[in-house]
Amino acid sequence: MSSQPSEDRNSDSSMKPDSSNHPDDSQGPGDGNTPEEVSPAKSSPGDGSDGEDPGKGSDGESTDQKTKVTVLVALAANLVIALAKAIGGVFAGSPALLSEAAHSVADSLNEVFLLFALRRSKRPADRRHPFGYGKERFFWALLAAVGIFVMGGCFSFLQGIEALRGGNEQETTTGYIVGLIVLGVALIAEGTSLLRAVIQVRGQGGLGKDPALRTVIAEDSTAVLGVLLAMGGMALHMVTKQIVWEASASIGIGLLLVYVAYRLGKDARDQLIGEAADPELRDRIEDMLNEQPEIDVVSSLLTMRLGMDSTLVAARIDLVPGLESEQLELVSMRIKSAIAKTWPEADQVYLDVTDAARAAAGDTP
Prior knowledge:
Blueprint: H1 5-8, H2 35-38, H3 57-92, H4 95-120, H5 136-166, H6 173-204, H7 211-240, H8 244-272, H9 279-291, E1 295-307, E2 310-319, H10 325-342, E3 348-353, H11 355-360
Helix pairs in contact: 3-4, 3-6, 3-7, 4-5, 4-7, 4-8, 5-8, 6-7, 7-8
């Protein structure tokens, strides 16, 4: 399989990208064939619903717009909450509340990263990036994970350790009340943001692989748990007069943030280094290729996600004996057109006809 698409386009029987991604392009250029001669040999597999494209067209734009609104809601909530927590934490002298303030600051910065990701990932392909900028979402999601780890997790650990080293410093009753009120308001705001994200997930039929939406869900879920931990630590500190409870809550928040950062970073890393398409999508494409009457054997099939709505499909195929050289081009174009029509997210399709098939068609090596 050749790794240079530009060279492959010079050969009649080598891999060729379906750059236009339109069924009408399946006609061989200048060969005079009618559309019927190059239409898919078989109907789309399944019940016909596989042709829906969740990430493109008006539906895809709507999904991106909803994700943007979800991120903006989370950003607004985190900015207000971070300020309230910081003021309340300083006033009350609460390490758990200050840890939560650092958590909200980290989340606010991460929402800015995600807004960059949503905008930059939609840029069209160019000469330097011929497959587009879809992986920008994964890059900014990775930065968001680093931000959660450094600004949230590490600061929370430091706050907890400093509180333990400082001894049983008592907060005033007013400090306790202010801290608990701030955390109560924060719980409502974080819960509202989380509810907005959950509603979008249900509307889309699942969380999927959108790193922006996954990050918002992870941040808001962690924020709700963190607020509950902080409230529990402050309440136990107030009752027992032992600061170890607030310190433990702060360290617990740090552990929670480090775990979330690890999971989000791991997902972003897998996608950046080249994650395969969903196994179900790969299997369906392979089944479709095997159903084509001109294909004898599918020697290999490789896939890679290039973005939220872009997937690379590269297949090495053996064609049945007896095909003439002129037919190879038409067969290749028709199959790629059928794949793109059935799964529009598979917008980069490459087919490599093996040497055995070329020899059977009378081509020279």
